[in-house]
Structures are given as C-alpha cells and as structure tokens.
Amino acid sequence: MERPHETNGDCAKGVLDNGHASPINACAKRKVARRRWAILAKALKSPSGSEPSSPTDECSVRRISSFLLLTTRQINEEIHPLHVAKKRTWYRYAMTIDAHEYFVIVGHRMRTFSAEDLMGFNNTGNVCIWPSEETLTYYLGANLHLVEDKRVLELGGGMSCLAGLVSAKYGHARHVHLTDGNKSSVENVLVSLACNELSCPVECTVLKWGRGAATPTAYDLVLCADCLFFDDARADLIDTLWECLAPAGVALVMAPRRGKTLASFITACECRGFRCCEFVNYNRIVWEKHLQLLANCDYDDDIHYPILLELTKA
Ligand SMILES: C[S@@+](CC[C@H](N)C(=O)[O-])C[C@H]1O[C@@H](n2cnc3c(N)ncnc32)[C@H](O)[C@@H]1O
Known about the structure:
alpha/beta, 32% helix, seven-stranded mixed sheet, three-stranded antiparallel sheet, Rossmann fold, globular
C-alpha cells in the first residue's frame, strides 16, 4: 500500500473560514497520517473486517471522524445465502431525512489481506467508509433533484461508492457509473449492487484517474469524496474531472481542508479552467453535528470536517 505522505512544509499558514490566518504545523499533518495508519492497523487486526463506526465503540478512531449521519445494522441473517457465501459481513446503512428513511446494503470484505492488497494500488478505500463519503451521501439524500435524469459518475468511491449507490437507488438518474482505481473496492461494490434494488442502469468498473481514463464529456454529475489526500494523484484526478464532465456538468468534491491540501486543489482546478465554489455549511444537520463535535478535544475540523466543492466549467 502506498504510504500517505505529508503535503506541506512545517508551520505553513492556513486560512480559516473567518478569514484569519492560523498556523498549521507539522504536528497537525502528522496527526492525519497517524490516524490513517491507526485505522488501517485496526482493520488489519480485525478478524471480521472493517466494521462501520458505532457510537458505542469507545476505542474507534473513526468515532471522532464519523458524523453519525447514518445508522448501521449488521444483517447477515437477512441476506440471501448466495451473498453470505461471498465472504462478507453485510450492513444496512440507513439515514432519515425529512422523516423519510433511505437505506442501502453494503458488504464489508472479511479481512484476508493479500500481498496485492497491502503492496498494490492504494488501499484506503477498503478500510472503511470515510466521513466525506458519509456527508456527501447525506447531502445527496437531501438534494436528490441534483441526480434526477443525470448521467452520474462516482470517482474513487472506495469499497461502498455509497453516494453513488444512494443516487442509483433513490435519485432517478439516467444512469450511474461507480468507479475506483482499486480492483478489490470495485469487486465489493459489484457484489453490493446485487443486494440493492436500483432505480436506473448502473455499471461499476475500475477507473484509474489520468488523461484518457474516462469517456469525454459523458457525465452531468461527478461525485468524489476524500480523494485529495495523495499529492501525486491530484493532477490526474483534475484531468479526469475535466475530461469526463459535460460542458454544463457539475462535479461535487467533498474533502476536509487538511492544511493547504484543499486550497492547492482549488488553485489547480482553477488553472485547469474550472470555476470552484466552496460550501462550508451545506446542510443544517451536518453543520449541527460539526458544532457538537467541536466540544470534543479529539475533533480537529481542519482534518475531519468535509468541505463541499462545486466545480463547473467556467
Ligand atoms: C480515502 S479513499 C476514499 C474512498 C471513499 N470515497 C470514501 O470516502 O469512503 C480514496 C479512494 O481513492 C482511490 N484512488 C486513489 N488514487 C486513485 C487513482 N489514481 N485512481 C483512481 N482511484 C484512486 C482509492 O482507491 C480509494 O478508494
């Protein structure tokens, strides 16, 4: 597995939402890497795989970074034996928005890591569903009109492609294409798709970012959550976003600020020709969860709070 490396020099300056500069020191950046490795270590040690975060899981490093917008319930006994046989623990992910419950079923691979898993393509999407995917899913659940009749692509969707899956089930899209660069993630999504009733045609394939990776101008809505972490992949991601988005299309990119990472991604997107709008408070419930978490000394909004970017071709 590629080791996450740190982005900025020591004592870089960051700009807070209120416009004031704040010191973002090397310690904060090390914290990000440490958390990622703690999560991976936990997943590696777990015999049954990556359990979703739970409010009762006192030891979970994800407890701090999950916004608990979704409830999770293990449902192996409700799954057809054919699917249980696929070496997965099955979860029902549900969210209630305006008194309406939305749910999807997602398999979590049981942890038998191969050498390819550990040393091959980026494995971060097989560890858990990250908070940016969680908040993007919730945001789309609350704004399903964004998906209606659209050709939707999710990039770097990890083992669940949760936001794309919810769009495919509830959004009445024209079609949905779920992707990740990691083969195991894509296999997991394919198995999960078979357990959900979807409202439109859906395909799921390996897609590694870079020039020529996606069908040009084929998508009206592109989703992407927590994919800015790796310095060496961001230029390829921007190339793919630019190429695959229809002239009047919109890309929704959800990611925490993480020091200068988000700001430099925005600068690079603008250089490529994108118009970028940044939304900090994009959903009342997500914002309330964030305000509650501020009282938790382990919560660092720079690392944990996902910002929503809307990219359009200027
Ligand atoms: C931190 S994970 C986020 C996964 C998922 N969106 C979530 O938030 O749960 C980053 C994802 O980006 C994918 N990824 C990283 N580099 C990539 C590349 N060059 N091409 C395609 N996918 C890539 C990884 O496989 C991984 O699933």
